[in-house]
Design goal:
mainly beta
Length: 313
């Protein structure tokens, strides 16, 4: 049992990302302005919590009550979204897992429809002097163009839409069935029906130790930095369908576990310290700080006992 409470976790989302995050069992969709530093949202719920991206979401499973979502992200702004795609608009020209492009090129995710969500892959030239993982980078055109100056098996992430600058981040290794990341404090996130596969740093939702414009959100068994959706909603009690809709420090909790929630999937509620060190749940006095993980099941790289403010089952 991975989680002891019912949270909506961002499993596969249906939006296309610019930089948005949505998690599903294996895939999610992100819209970008974020891969270009814009926000994205994806749905997800866990143990009564829901995490989502800007895509339609549907409650998903797991002992935690995680929810998955499907749908398309909204467009027309500079925010990046992550969500679940239905697969009908995907254009796969190369395999991003094995990078089967010709010498001097690399397989990259991009938006082939003029939108801000990654929904396709293509082979693009590798820069003459490419930047390594963790180094600054620049994209050509936008964060979803698929063209940057990062090395092979890496892409420019968290891109600033005004400067087109971001940071190179590694793609996952292995396969969709058995993904891996070289850094033990990173987690493989698979979004947009497998178009986007990134080794994102594990973060702490209580500390919110992500860069500006990003929020530490729940993703399957762990927590990763995802672009904020830029939605006007996101405060405690607001309805949510995507995991990155809620403000930093909040997650999309299962509608039945958040007091007064009228959302079809869930409403935003606080993360909390399961050891009782804070009063994060004071906004919903009827709730309790439910531990996110069973004892001994928390992933590595955490210094706090993470929980979610939810009504007891």
């Amino acid at each position: 049992m991975r989680r002891s409470c019912t949270f909506v976790s961002f499993a596969t989302l249906a939006c296309s990302p610019a930089v948005g995050v949505v998690a599903d069992e294996t895939s999610t969709t992100v819209e970008t302005t974020a891969s270009s530093s814009s926000s994205t949202s994806s749905p997800s719920t866990t143990g009564g919590t829901t995490t989502s991206t800007t895509t339609s979401a549907s409650a998903t499973t797991a002992d935690t009550g995680a929810a998955d979502s499907s749908g398309a992200a909204e467009t027309g702004d500079d925010n990046a979204f992550i969500g679940r795609l239905d697969g009908s608009g995907l254009t796969i020209e190369c395999d991003i897992w094995i990078d089967d492009c010709p010498p001097g090129q690399k397989c990259m995710p991009w938006a082939n429809d003029g939108g801000n969500s990654w929904n396709a892959t293509k082979c693009t030239p590798i820069a003459e002097q490419p930047n390594g993982v963790g180094e600054p980078c620049t994209v050509e055109g936008s964060g979803v163009s698929g063209i940057d100056d990062c090395a092979a098996r890496a892409m420019c992430w968290d891109v600033d839409p005004e400067t087109n600058e971001g940071t190179c981040i590694a793609f996952c290794n292995g396969s969709e069935a058995a993904p891996t990341c070289g850094d033990p404090c990173s987690s493989c996130t698979v979004w947009n029906e497998g178009v986007l596969i990134l080794c994102l740093p594990i973060c702490d939702p209580l500390v919110q130790d992500c860069s500006e414009g990003m929020a530490c959100q729940a993703y399957e068994d762990t927590f990763v930095c995802s672009p904020d959706s830029g939605s006007e909603l996101g405060a405690a009690g607001d309805q949510c369908e995507f995991y990155n809709v809620c403000d930093p420090g909040l997650f999309c909790g299962d509608a039945a576990r958040v007091p007064g929630c009228l959302g079809a999937i869930g409403c935003c509620t606080p993360f909390c310290d399961a050891l009782g060190a804070g009063d994060e749940c004071a906004v919903f006095p009827e709730t309790e700080c439910i531990p996110w993980f069973d004892e001994g099941e928390a992933p590595p790289c955490f210094s706090t006992e993470i929980g979610g403010c939810l009504l007891p089952e």
